Amino acid sequence: MVLDKPPELDPPESSSFYPGDFNDIARVEEKSGGSLFSVNRAPKFMDRWEECGLLDMVAIGARFTWVWKMNGKVVIRERLDRVLINCHAQEKLPEAKTVNLPCLSSNHHPVLFHFSMTTPPCLSKISHSDIKRLR
Predict the structure, then answer these.
(1) What is the pLDDT of residues 104-124, one digit of tens each?
(2) Which InterPro entries does the UniProt entry name for this protein (predicted)?
(3) How many domains does the chain have?
(4) Cβ contacts of residue 2 below 8 Å, gap of 6+?
């Protein structure tokens, strides 16, 4: 997960961002391959967000953020990595964007959360060294 420098928010504690590998999926379209999508588990995952007043940032870029390969072939793809934010953060930072970057060396795609991106990056031009510089 890569975050740019957060802007000053007033008051800062009222704006919350939770980036990470949540190791769970919320919707059937966030999974390809492997075992069947769990219609019981996904609503529980989303209910936890609602209980905390959080929203899932819509990401641009790669549809899935995690892959599992067997014998060099992709077997399972899932969107496990995401950024959850509260309503206050969404109101204060309307230009914030989440970008799922190309997968270069891990089974997880790096996820960039940018606080004020007006124009998304050209994903085909991002290299491994670009991602290292963002860290």
Answers:
(1) 888 999 998 888 766 555 555
(2) Endo/exonu/phosph_ase_sf
(3) 1
(4) 101, 110, 111, 112, 113, 131, 134, 135
